[in-house]
Amino acid sequence: MTEPSRPWWKNRLVIVQTNLQAADTSKINPERLVQQICELDADALLFNVGGIYAWYPSAVPCHHINEFLPQDRDLLQEVIDACHAAGLRFIARYDFSLAHDDVYALYPEWFTQTPQRESTLAGEKRPGPWDLLYATCINSPYCGDAVAVPVLQESLRRYDIDGVFFNWPHPRDCWCDHCRRLYRARYGVAMPEEARELAPDWHSYLYRENTLLLHKAIQEARPGTPLVLYSEERPLVENAHPAEIICAETRDSLSEELADVWMPQVSMKHIESYKTEDAPVWGFVHSAPGLDWRHVGIPEAEYDFWLSQIVSGGWTLVHSVTGIPDTIYDKRILGCVERANRCAHKIFPALEGTRPFAQIAVLWDHFHPSKGWMDILADSQRPFVLLERDTLTLAHMAEYPVVIVPREFSLTEPVLLELEAYVSGGGCLLYEGDIPDHLDMLYDILGLQRYQHHSKALAAAYWRFEEDGAALAQGGLENTPLVGVRGEVVYSRVGEAQTLATLVPPFVDPPQLAGKPPERASIRVAHTQLPLCTLHSYGKGKAAALMVSLPTLYHEIGMVEHLLLCDNLLGILLPAPKLKVTRKQGLYVMCHGTEKTLVVQLLNGAGARPLHHRTPLLDIEIRVQLPGCKRVQTLLENQEFSVEQDASSAAIRLSRLDAWEALVIQGE
């Protein structure tokens, strides 16, 4: 599975993390455990080593040894030896975010404090004879030279560990004297008493400084050992992720709040911008529907679908399960783990040497994500990438024929200058929302007059197609001159742009009176000059503007009209896409490619979520612009398909998709 000519962690992998239960320690049989991990077709085991509990006989003071460990043998050594004998990598899990109350009694200054000097406890109401756990301060000696550094160096020098993973490495809000002194030294002012008033880069700064210290300790003890680090989600300082591997947790929450269907791929695309090494990012997927129900599993169809998104993106998949196979109550999840891993071992070789393929880029603000555009692009089977503000350049944008600026993205002058050069050079811009007062150049790019006013949140209003917008009224909209809209509208005036659609103002206000009585439901003003969608040629490129948020409406209501309008608008900007897939509700597309090869993956997520079973999707066409299609190969389901081609394109028709298929399409 792995490529021997490069470090193991630079390969795409599937990994099992056993979130070990201390009381079950006696049930761990190293040889049996490793055999089970091999039977799940995994490449590595991620296993507890140190932090809250030491899973080995540690000599570091204040490192609490798991009281359930066997006294007559070294369980950790046996597990590592069994892994290596079976060809598995061993990744050590550490968690220095909490410590036992006996450590708190000795060193209370190592732990977080509220502004009122109270400590933070974790799990104090958990039933059973457990010690209290206190939250540690990331600036304290516990997370540095007193405990974390010597624990890392002791275990890495003693054991043949292949990689290091930190659980919960992020700083907590803390007002201890360590933090107050450091805050004043960094910013020259007293630390605010309210968390929301802290400097935007405070947490990122703490995260970087602590990780630099621990990374140095790792390399001193065991040079070349990679560190796996969660991404820091707050505004970043430079070099905020001093680690070889960046990871994210893509939890499919069911008992808490249903996660968005596209969340796995969006989370992974987001953190890819932070990686510093030529290594896949890692995606952790919990098998439980929520941490309150961590001893049961997500429904199999839902879990399979969630896992497939990580593998399809070419990212390393980490299964996070509660316990070892012998102590897992819900055995169904083991079948899901094995299926995903076996599919990964078929797909990953086909992705070698490829890059993610997309013709659409979305400017992305992780703190204010555009859920509407994610819904639109996923549901219209259009592969896309995310361009982060911190790494955004003209060179990045120039790789993609279409760039979308969602209304949630806060546009700045430097970014606007890059966008102007992008459109002038032939790129196509789709801009949603209002124009900031200090960015007048955007009026010129969009072909609008320097005029805008914001409406209140409208209801009972409509989108009206104009003659120039006939291309928007396709794909099922040919017989409806109006489409319902609501929400805030940016009232604008057209300059040189074409008007594709205009606003039909509310026919009733307040909307609660719309049906009282129906005899008075007539539209009084059927036509205005207020544009809702425009198109402008600028330089060698084009710029479209949306004055009402169709993606938000689609996210909130789910009406197909709003999906079709956005998809048709993208079709105007990208009239001849290199990849076009039959639009079907619940069909999701991931794609990688080279100049001569495309790997197109089709994921079946049709049905109400969480998915209880898979509803087959029938008659799917994949049309690709790939000269001289020589060969099409399916890797997973091997369903019947046909191929028709001409000199420049090929149409592959798949008769049936049950769950997940990967097609390797090779051209000349």
- Domains (count): 3
Class derived from helix and strand content: alpha/beta
CATH fold field value of the largest domain: TIM Barrel
Helical residue percent band: 10-25%
Description of the structure:
The chain is of the alpha/beta class and 668 residues long. Helices cover 25% and strands 26% of the residues. The chain has 3 domains: 8-94 and 139-170 and 196-351, TIM Barrel; 360-576, Class I glutamine amidotransferase (GATase) domain (Rossmann fold); 580-666, Immunoglobulin-like (Sandwich). A hairpin with a 4-residue loop joins strand 29 (641-645) and strand 30. The mean pLDDT is 94.
Q: What would a concise description of this structure say?
A:
With 668 residues, this protein is α/β, with parallel strands linked by helices. Helix content is 25%, strand content 26%.
